[in-house]
Amino acid sequence: MAATGLAAMARPAFAQGDLLPSWNDGPTKRAILDFIARTTQAGGRDWVPVPERIACFDNDGTLWTEQPVYFQIAFAFDRVKALAPRHPEWRTQEPFRSILADDRATLATLGEKGFLEVMAATHTGLTTEAFGKAVLDWLATARHPRFNRPYTDLVYQPMLELLALLRAHQFKTYIVSGGGIEFMRPWTERVYGIPPEQVVGSSGVTRYELRPDGTPVLVKDPKVMFIDDGPGKAVGINQFIGRRPVFAFGNSDGDQQMLEWTAAGSGARFMGLVHHTDGVREYAYDRPSLVGQLDKAWNEALRRGWTIVDMKNDWKVIYPFELK
Amino acid sequence: MAATGLAAMARPAFAQGDLLPSWNDGPTKRAILDFIARTTQAGGRDWVPVPERIACFDNDGTLWTEQPVYFQIAFAFDRVKALAPRHPEWRTQEPFRSILADDRATLATLGEKGFLEVMAATHTGLTTEAFGKAVLDWLATARHPRFNRPYTDLVYQPMLELLALLRAHQFKTYIVSGGGIEFMRPWTERVYGIPPEQVVGSSGVTRYELRPDGTPVLVKDPKVMFIDDGPGKAVGINQFIGRRPVFAFGNSDGDQQMLEWTAAGSGARFMGLVHHTDGVREYAYDRPSLVGQLDKAWNEALRRGWTIVDMKNDWKVIYPFELK
Ligand SMILES: [Ca+2]
Ligand SMILES: [Ca+2]
């Protein structure tokens, strides 16, 4: 009955029929539709007032693919290659040597510290505007090594449908990602319908400067401002949004605290995890994995009855281009 | 003609007549109405797409009174007094001694460092929830020393009308304040119609903790995360909103960079300053002033033709309670 109510309400935006057409029928899809129906049905016991309808999504591995490496790492490595002629010292200096030599064995051991070093070296001194342009230029030309397509083609069609369905029910959709805020904002509105002010992410310090002609710019410093991962996701949600979400979706241990923080509010709650189970159409990985490890958060989800998406069985298609 | 178009469009929200009834006619009011008309008239040369309609307002001295001291300082001092029985050492230790003794001469020299010390001592260890409750409890009982009213009564009626008019024209209204983000968010939605996720401000570090029963909390640490003042306002706008505003209003030198940052975008722009000229109905101050000094930003506004509100002459009433 709740689902019938939802279908009726959603009709203007989702003309008759399936509200999540790329999701197979089953408990996962039912849990999502049921939550949206219950929380948006006026007068219902689980009704959530519109201003409280905050839905937070992790990005890497939840809204788009994150293999064989986080796409932002691919971007940073490509910047190292582009800037290498100006930095002859990089030919012998790690981690730049390994990047330039495509030495994957060494790169796999890079870790967060090494990656931050690469970001600092390749992003420092750019204005925020120049950085945004560099991101868009890269996305326009770079291709994913396996699918040979622009990285922004590798977003998940079922999640695009879910984002749109939530917005049609007056949920405000946010990204809450460990990725760089300035790496995401230039394209999230076009690709996900999520405007820059609804993107929470990791960020570096920027410095306000007046150029000689009086034009103000913000220049990227090497210093890290905030890491939006793990416990940082709850901190970031509080810092940027200032409200507790009622709906949150992630895919890895870095999302555990975001889901805990969401679950700890009162009233109806939805906590979801994407489990990468499809090695044929995408990638299959959970524990252990260097990228997007799902281990502790999986245990907690099983224990607490959170929704777990089985990509292989729950999703009819993975990417939008499969529909064409 | 533009103003006619605006009146017609605004009719649903502002039934016939004056769109800013508490503003006297004159160049200031005309500049505001003209800007809104030009930027929202479909097909016009200065039309701004809805997603780009970002309007940023400073809070202290721009949306509410900031004399005789910033209201957040009054809050922190009241907390020192409330917590004093648990801290006998404060009777001799500065700056607490001066606060407990109401030693205004010493307090006037406190400066940002001293104030941060008071905040750290009185806020550290509270959860974000407990802190928000402390703010609301204080607002419910504290009274302004001159007006003998709750501090939230001392918001500017003309600015409430401006906020509502902007929103009626699909501008997203933000607060961008040097004040504490957690001090503002509990009440800005009720008082200004600005939801917590549209409040940018200074903030401290918070720490994610699981309580013994498994409940997650965010605990306030003494460390400063970000000071949203001066150049920090441009940084904060970029960090939290990720779009450049087209409209910004401040009242002091701490707003200069926010206005410069707003002015440096392309297309139509509005930069405004509230000049406190009414010592009878409110307070009169500019340069020099310990609170809300308006000096360099005033010079720049005069030089660049930014709009300057003369409170005494531009505003029919200052506070909402004058209407009753
Ligand atoms: Ca992820
Ligand atoms: Ca101010």
UniProtKB/TrEMBL annotation, chains A, B:
CDD domains: HAD_like. It comes from the Bacteria. InterPro entries: HAD-like_SerB, HAD-like_sf, HAD_sf. Pfam families: HAD. This is Haloacid dehalogenase-like hydrolase.
